[in-house]
Amino acid sequence: MALWRVTNTWQSAIRAALAPFDLTHVQFVLLASLTWMDRASPVTQRDLADHAGTDVMMTSQVLRVLEGKGLISRSPHPTDGRARALTPTTMGAALASKANTAVEAADLRYFAALEGERDDFLRHLQALDRAHRR
Description:
Blueprint: H1 2-18, H2 25-36, H3 45-52, H4 56-68, E1 72-76, E2 84-88, H5 90-111, H6 118-132
Helix pairs in contact: 1-5, 2-3, 2-4, 2-5, 3-4
């Protein structure tokens, strides 16, 4: 129950931080992930979903919204005719950067209650993520 309550209050803090940017939490995660992913090769929807840990179909729906807002572009993949290459637009990259600053500030405020235990908490979350990643 504690994890449920903490998750809900943290998500509320993140929603409030993202409201001025007209982004939902999942839109932010996908846009920010795409912006900071290594571009040695074209990023596909599957690559982005795997990186963010999101469902591929839901990722597709969110990407359509981000494209409609002019924050990403989807172009033909150079080697896979079925895939699309994803790129943040200049406006999308700038918005992701500004929103990231707001999210990081919200995280610092929210997790300040952990005082000196924040690093341990993060280490435990990363261990759970590794153990249960799909």
